Amino acid sequence: AQSVTQPDIHITVSEGASLELRCNYSYGATPYLFWYVQSPGQGLQLLLKYFSGDTLVQGIKGFEAEFKRSQSSFNLRKPSVHWSDAAEYFCAVGPAGNDMRFGAGTRLTVKP
Amino acid sequence: GAGVSQTPSNKVTEKGKYVELRCDPISGHTALYWYRQSLGQGPEFLIYFQGTGAADDSGLPNDRFFAVRPEGSVSTLKIQRTERGDSAVYLCASSLRTSANNEQFFGPGTRLTVL
């Protein structure tokens, strides 16, 4: 069965510092992987997705993620965090058509 | 055009009551999805529609939950005999079609509180 683990419930970084949010997945076939961001009162917004090809994926808002099959990971990174990046981040796995499985989320706090 | 909209944004009800939650997808999107997000958790898949038909309802927790999409656009999630454990944010999403590379666009959710 497919599943997603986000080991960090809450992360705090200083504005301008680099960021890495961890995501580990379990999936029987080649996974489709996603990162979403959710701000208070807002819907989930897709940051980036991986289906195949280049394992380093670029997304919106300066985010990138790297698919590592050997580690079953799809970690999200950003070189310099902005205060507006404070939000909840969700990793998801599976077919985009249905039954997409989400992790429990990582809440990001940005210190001034 | 407008994004996915959901009404109401908040719903408070008493245990045992019936509730309906509405989702207006993006115009032209044939696929529509319902998820439930409990506090401190990620969204959990409930059901998805391709057009008017429920293509996969395997995520519905029990027969108190039902969803319809009679004209292939607006969808209503119906919960009978609500229980306190049904309290959550109910998210709706839509996409152009249910293939692997079609992004799901999410609405802001309906926060349901069952007292």
How would you sum up this structure, described in words?
The complex is a heterodimer of chains A (112) and B (115). Chain A is 0% helix and 49% strand. Chain A has no helices and twelve strands. In chain A, the strands form three sheets. In chain A, strands 2, 5, 6, 10, 11 and 12 form a six-stranded mixed sheet that branches. Chain A has a four-stranded antiparallel sheet with strand order 3-9-8-7, with no helix packed on it. Chain A has a two-stranded antiparallel ribbon with strand order 1-4. In chain A, a hairpin with a 7-residue loop joins β10 and β11. Chain A is globular, with a radius of gyration of 13 Å. With 115 residues, chain B is mainly beta. The model of chain B has no long low-confidence stretch (mean pLDDT 92).
Compact overview of the structure:
The complex is a heterodimer of chains A (112) and B (115). Chain A has no helices and twelve strands. Chain A is 0% helix and 49% strand.
Percent of residues in beta strands of chain B: over 45%
- Measured between the Cα atoms of the first and last residue of chain B, the distance is 37 Å
Number of helices of chain A: 0
Helix content of chain B: under 10%
Q: Assign a percent range to the helix content of chain A.
A: under 10%
Total count of strands of chain B: 11
Question: Radius of gyration of chain A, Cα only, in angstroms?
Answer: 13 Å
* Major sheet size, sense and barrel closure of chain A: 6 strands, mixed
* Ends apart, CA distance between termini of chain A: 41 Å
Shape of chain B: globular
Q: Which percent band covers the strand fraction of chain A?
A: over 45%
Question: Which features characterize this protein?
Answer:
heterodimer, A: 112 residues, mainly beta, 6-stranded mixed sheet, 0% helix, globular, B: 115 residues, 7-stranded mixed sheet, 48% strand
List the helices and strands and how they pair.
The complex is a heterodimer of chains A (112) and B (115).
Chain A lengths: L2 E3 L4 E5 L4 E3 L2 E3 L6 E6 L6 E6 L5 E3 L5 E5 L4 E6 L8 E7 L7 E2 L3 E6 L1
Parallel strand pairs in A: 2-12
Antiparallel strand pairs in A: 1-4, 3-9, 5-6, 5-10, 7-8, 8-9, 10-11, 10-12
Chain B lengths: L4 E3 L2 E4 L5 E6 L6 E7 L6 E7 L2 E4 L8 E4 L6 E5 L8 E8 L9 E2 L3 E5 L1
Parallel strand pairs in B: 2-11
Antiparallel strand pairs in B: 1-3, 3-8, 4-5, 4-9, 5-6, 7-8, 9-10, 9-11
